Amino acid sequence: MQGLEKLMLEKANALLQSGEVDRVIGWKKGESYYDVSPATFTKDNLEGFVYNCFCGANLSKYLVAESKKEGKMLVFLKPCDTYSFNQLLSEHRIEKEKFYVVGVGCNGHLDMNKVYAQGVEGILSMSEDENNLIVETVYGQKIVEKESALLIKCLTCKSKEFAVADETLVVGEMKPANPNRFEEVEKLESMTEAERYAFWKEQLSKCIRCNACRNACPACTCINCVFDNNASGISAKANADEFEEKLFHIIRAYHVAGRCTDCGECSRVCPQNIPLHLINRKVIKDINENYGDYQAGAEVNARNPLVNYTKADVEAKEVVEGGNK
Amino acid sequence: MQEIEKNQKKPLIVAFCCNWCSYAGADLAGSSRLSYPAEVKIIKVPCSCRVNPIFILKAFQRGADGVILCGCHPGDCHYSEGNYRTRRRMGLLFSMLNYFGIEKERTRIEWVSAAEGAKFSAVMNDFAKTINELGENRRLEDLRCKD
Question: What is the pTM of this model?
Answer without folding.
Answer: 0.91
